[in-house]
Amino acid sequence: MQIVDELKRKRGEVFGQIDTLRGEIATLEEQRAAFDTIIKVYDPGYLPEDTANKAFPRGAKAGIG
User: Fold this and answer.
1) pLDDT tens digits, one per residue of 17-42
2) Separation of alpha carbons 60 and 57, rounded Å
3) If you write DSSP's letter for every residue of 1-65 in order, what string do you get?
4) 16 to each of 21, 24, 64, how far by Cα in Å?
5) Which residues contact 62 (CB under 8 A, 6 or more apart)?
6) What's the whole-model pTM score?
């Protein structure tokens, strides 16, 4: 039954990765909310959904140019 044992082991690894990613997602969502709060201080008309699907390359200055 080595195949079954290996599948169970791999399943456990995947479960662990999912759990880790859920934690990372929660942290990123908190960071996003903090950014939204600060942006609203400087731009009261800012709507978070305006940039929800935009990906800006690292180092790029969004909206400038």
Assistant:
1) 999 999 999 999 999 999 999 999 99
2) 5
3) -HHHHHHHHHHHHHHHHHHHHHHHHHHHHHHHHHHHHHHHHH-TT--GGGSTT----TT--TT--
4) 9, 12, 41
5) 51, 54, 56
6) 0.65
